[in-house]
Write a structure and sequence with these properties.
Elements (H helix, E strand, L loop, with lengths): L3 H26 L4 H28 L18 H27 L4 H28 L5
Helix pairs in contact: 1-2, 3-4
The chain binds fe (ii) ion (2 copies).
Length: about 140
Amino acid sequence: MPEDGLVKLLREQLKVERNFVATVEKLIKNIHNVAAKLLLLETQKDSEKHAMILEGILKVISQEDAKPLWDTLLDSYVDKLVVKTNLERHIKTEKTMIDFVEKEIKGTKDEGIKLLLEHIASDEKKHHEILQTVIKQAYKIKP
Ligand SMILES: [Fe+2]
Ligand SMILES: [Fe+2]
């Protein structure tokens, strides 16, 4: 296997992320503060997401003829240009979500609500960047 050390680390981290998801699941049932509960829920969902990403990376780099991730293609018969157009449309949706959240942040004096909405806003900004990166990297012309 090409990246033995990395594979080992990824597997260990995957275990930690999955354990965290299970632990928060139990913990959350006994928490009676809404803000605390929502914030813990956020960390749990992030851990689920991290676990999925780690699994995906492991799947690719465990292959004997592993290539760089951006050069790894999926078998697909869908029209690449249609997908690209859809991705570009999604960028606009992300902008709408950012606008909503920013107005909501301005519209509340509640510190707990503000904090949670700010987390969503920073996620939306990240999503916007992710979509731009995907469009740039996945559709670049290969030499
Ligand atoms: Fe994580
Ligand atoms: Fe988003």
